[in-house]
From TrEMBL:
The keyword Membrane does not apply. This is Bug family tripartite tricarboxylate transporter substrate binding protein. It comes from Teichococcus globiformis. Pfam families: TctC (PF03401). Residues 1-24 form the signal peptide.
Amino acid sequence: MTFPTRRATLGALGALPLARAGHAATASWPSEPIRIFVPFAPGGSTDAVARLAAPGLQKRLGVPVIIENRGGAAGSIGTDAAARARPDGHSWLLTFDSHAVMPVLVPNLSFDLEKDLVPVTQIGRAPYVTACQPAKPYRSMADVFAAARKGGVSFGSTGNGTIGHLVMLMMAQRRGVELTHLPYRSGGLAVNDAVAGHVDFMIGSAALLAPHLAANSLRPLMQLGAGRLPALQSVPTAEEDGFPGLSAEAWWGVFGPAGIPAPILSRFHAALVETYREPAIARQFTEINQAELVLGAPDALAGFVREQIRIWGEVARTNRVRPD
């Protein structure tokens, strides 16, 4: 018969209070306000997606839900804050598509996307759309590329390394033209300058541009989804406009610091899903913002991000894209 060593026995006994404490913390969660870090400035689609859910989460979880904007360095500042937070379920990250290319944009990251963060759910996705002020002479992207051959055409995006920026690089290369990129700290700032005509055109998610397209303060030129959106039936897709196989979708996902107890992660996931599926919120997200809810399992988000890193990370490396 083999008996446990004294060290093993003492270790097991010492672990009991910790285990009980862990169970108690899980049972009492949440015990303080919940912070959701948004690693971008207010006014963009990521901020809007987070604030859309805050009241419903607060109702379901019974504590205040605080949206904390920490922009800068391609989203790495806010992401670092979430990764370093205590893994007790009171701090989370709601981020955007540039999350997947962050290792390329910021080579000396202080955290590891896969080791220091755990996926919760992909909230949704929306195709990118190009648009310009109606006073501009462009009626299509063909007009934009024709003007670019003469030089001096600028476009705005929500930042270096976003999928919108990267797909514009790909389109310009395929057409053999150069476009001047103007990266903004948030989608709200990019839209403001596009509406004012300070930039020739911009690229942003359908969710970001939808109110301005509906108000005719921006004219849509191309959409980059697999098919035409219900509200943009007269606007061609990239595939239809001579870019076979090309599509680009913005996406929003939720992560937490590694080490969050599985029961807490599961409860927060359930609260998110229930909140975004509320009829009023789902309508806002899908009909008004022209986006699609996903709300999948954590493993699905992990696999999705790995694929995004493979696809868009290569584009960012090839073009030597760096943070704003």
